[in-house]
Amino acid sequence: MEWSRRTCVLLCLAALAGCSTMDQAPTSRGEVRGASANGGEMGQSDINRVATLGMRDNLDSLYLLMDKLYRRNPVEWKKTAASREESVKRVRDAIEQRQAWPALQGQRDIKAMSFALAPDFSGDRVAAFIYSSADMIITAHGGKTEFFLTDGLDAQHIYNAARNIEIAVWMLSNRRNADGRVLLLSDEIGERGRNLSFEREFGKIVGRLDLLAEFTTEKYRRAGINYVQNILGASFLQFLPVR
């Protein structure tokens, strides 16, 4: 009996050692990014945290797309700024400070998106499009970019935001201005190759929104399941008598 116990202990130690020496995942293409801890997380549920991180990543994706669109359409930033960097900063500040964008004439949310993608829009279309897309996403999240226990999310609104992004991407690729040109140059398929980086980045935004919408719909169902699991698990977590 003693020998078998020692054998079991040795086998367990060997298994643990194997786990500790398991090859690390390669990081040549980058490392997973985690947010630094802060005191505000104490007031966040799991879904609050997921929504906050998703919002951060979606805004970052829009900022990346803005820079890429400006590089392919430099005539746009030249309408209102001295440099591409200055224009990017102005749009970011307006989004994060929830300020109106003058060229949109007071329009917000989906009305602003429609205006920014109108063939006859004459302002900086990149700025207007990125600003209105961000404003629409934030509006779908109840007008907030950080979420805590007192905040609620509407899954259908978030789902609709994902569809709005899909529609906007289609408009960029297919809608033409009075001169017969696409509204903004983005993805490119030609003799020099295929550049679908815009489509991939927009796809990331749609994917995050859809996942959050689905996760939000499960909130109350999961709460009931967790309650039952805790009740059932309680009987297995009781101390056993030793005398």
Description:
- With 243 residues, this protein is an all-alpha fold.
- It has one domain.
- 59% of the residues lie in helices and 2% in strands.
- It has nine helices and two strands, in the order αααααααββαα.
- It has helices at 2-20, 46-72, 74-77, 84-96, 109-116, 125-140, 155-174, 197-217, 219-234; strands at residues 188-190, 193-195.
- Strands 1-2 form a two-stranded antiparallel sheet.
- The longest helix has 27 residues, at 46-72.
- The mean pLDDT is 84.
Number of domains: 1
Query: Unreliable runs, pLDDT <50, ≥5 residues?
Result: none
Please tally the β strands and state the result. 2
Mean model confidence by pLDDT = 84
Helix content: 55-70%
Query: What summary fits the major beta sheet?
Result: 2 strands, antiparallel
The DSSP helix count reads 9
Any idea what the shape is? globular
**Rg (CA only):** 25 Å
Distance between the termini: 23 Å
Structural class label: mainly alpha
Q: Which strands sit side by side, in order, in the main sheet?
A: 1-2
Strand residues, percent: under 5%
Q: Write down the secondary-structure element order.
A: HHHHHHHEEHH
Task: Tell me the quaternary state.
Answer: single chain
Key features of this structure:
243 residues, mainly alpha, 9 helices, 2 strands
Short précis:
This protein has helices spanning 2-20, 46-72, 74-77, 84-96, 109-116, 125-140, 155-174, 197-217, 219-234, and strands at 188-190, 193-195. With 243 residues, it is mostly helical. Strands 1-2 form a two-stranded antiparallel sheet.
